[in-house]
């Protein structure tokens, strides 16, 4: 395990629908605050994330790397610093349905669902979350098996971010070599804290539809929740989410 002075790579891993666009914006500011080069999935020359799941050796960069929404183990994982930012997978799946149903436009390089996925979308939210659950279970189990609890990994919880941004922010930033940590935190609080003044309102056509945790309890049928609780029993227990 590398000491802080030897660390060259700082990764942020998450999933879709865990405020990853917000983390993207924070990463851009981190590049300024640390002086490190930012490498992000949509930057020119950055490998497709689905390819990195199959062959992590395609990623050959140092600096700030993220936000990464697919699970893989970088070749320099043991010598890097990692933030693992996760959300209750049941809420992730609910948010995924609304994004795919109402806000995402199809494109060959981005959101391009299969016919099976489109068919499940048309059947409604309960069918869709169960259809997508195995894919996300695999991703969460990978994160739990390979990253969670490792000495060089900081675990970040979406729910703490939206409910206690002031307490969450310093924890998220702890691994990064900021030049002036106190000033950076103060600036981010002023710039971003208002985004988490939650009133429980909802706009199904907005990318940030509803940030309040526990949305699956309102949107899904009881039998669907029971099935998801069974499917995600291990991640929910390890990440300490209520069932």
From TrEMBL:
UniProt keyword annotations, A-Z: Transferase
Superkingdom assignment: Bacteria
Domain Sulfotransferase: 70-237
UniProt-recorded Gene Ontology molecular function terms: sulfotransferase activity
Pfam families on file: Sulfotransfer_1 (PF00685)
Protein name, per record: Sulfotransferase domain-containing protein
Species in which this protein is naturally found: Maricaulis salignorans
Organism phylogeny: Bacteria, Pseudomonadati, Pseudomonadota, Alphaproteobacteria, Maricaulales
């Amino acid at each position: 395990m590398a000491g802080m002075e030897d660390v060259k790579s700082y990764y942020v891993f998450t999933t879709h629908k865990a405020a990853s666009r917000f983390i993207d914006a924070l990463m851009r500011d981190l590049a300024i605050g640390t002086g490190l080069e930012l490498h992000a999935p949509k930057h020119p020359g950055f490998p497709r994330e689905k390819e990195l799941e199959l062959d992590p050796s395609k990623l050959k960069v140092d600096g700030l790397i993220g936000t990464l929404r697919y699970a893989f183990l970088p070749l320099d994982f043991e010598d890097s610093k990692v933030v693992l930012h996760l959300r209750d997978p049941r809420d992730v799946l609910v948010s995924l349905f609304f994004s795919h149903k109402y806000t995402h436009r199809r494109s060959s390089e981005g959101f391009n669902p299969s016919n099976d996925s489109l068919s499940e979308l048309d059947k409604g939210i309960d069918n869709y979350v169960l259809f997508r659950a195995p894919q996300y279970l695999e991703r969460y189990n990978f994160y739990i098996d390979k990253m969670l609890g490792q000495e060089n990994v900081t675990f970040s919880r979406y729910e703490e971010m939206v409910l206690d941004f002031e307490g969450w922010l310093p924890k998220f930033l702890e691994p990064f070599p900021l030049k002036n940590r106190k000033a950076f935190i103060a600036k981010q609080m002023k710039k971003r804290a208002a985004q988490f003044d939650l009133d429980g309102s909802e706009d199904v056509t907005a990318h940030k539809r509803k940030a309040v945790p526990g949305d699956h309890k309102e949107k899904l049928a009881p039998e669907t929740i029971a099935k998801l609780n069974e499917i995600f029993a291990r991640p929910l227990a390890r990440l300490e989410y209520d069932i």
